[in-house]
Amino acid sequence: MHRPPLAAVLVVAAALLTGCASGDDWSQRRPTPSAVGALGAGFTGPGRSPAPESTVTPSPGSWSGVRPSPGFRVVLLGAGGDRPAKTLAKAVREWAKETDVDLRTVTASGAADLLPAVTRALELHPDLIVSVGNDLIDPLTTVSPSHLAQQFLVVGAELAEPTQNVTAVEWPGASFRGEGLGTSSAYEPASFTDARCAAAVRAGAAAVLTGHTGIVVRLDEF
Questions:
Q1: Of 78, 135, 143, 207, which has the maximum CB count within 10 A?
Q2: Sign of CA dihedral 58, 59, 63, 65
Q3: Predicted structure pTM score
Q4: What is the rounded distance in angstroms from the CA atom of residue 212 to the CA atom of residue 208?
Q5: Contact between residue 216 and residue 158 where contact means Cβ atoms under 8 Å apart
């Protein structure tokens, strides 16, 4: 039986290793990601696209036809070990696995690490930073206006005065806007169910992917 020269085997092996690694190398440029599919009727309502800082209440499931194009790069930015934050983080990971998203995680180790954690997420230059945990709202309020090219998705809370690059998803029981600010409804940890968090992540991602950014997506039903 004929065997290829050792040198040829090594070349092929090197090529395979390079190919496997290239998908994880975020330093390399690649085509701008896009949405696959389209929003269903009732996501934003009739007429023009929603204005920045406005609130939309999408029809249940109107976001389900949208997913990211292959290789979409997402950083899960987390803080806090409470059940709501853990449930949201789980929902982000499940969505990433389901849609073949390239996901990395940055977690703040404590109060002193909140701003540094945001900076670490920014340094990865992802297509989207998904923030979970109320403790990150004030740091994001400080940092996000200075990084308008970076898209953020805040799930289970919102910024009091978001810029065009910050999209939020909230619902009754989840509308924290920062320390010292009131909420539009009482904070209720029990409202962070698996089903609601999953819907929130998908609805928010669909909004960002279709260019409806800088708004609040409110899930009264899902």
A1: 207
A2: negative
A3: 0.86
A4: 6
A5: yes
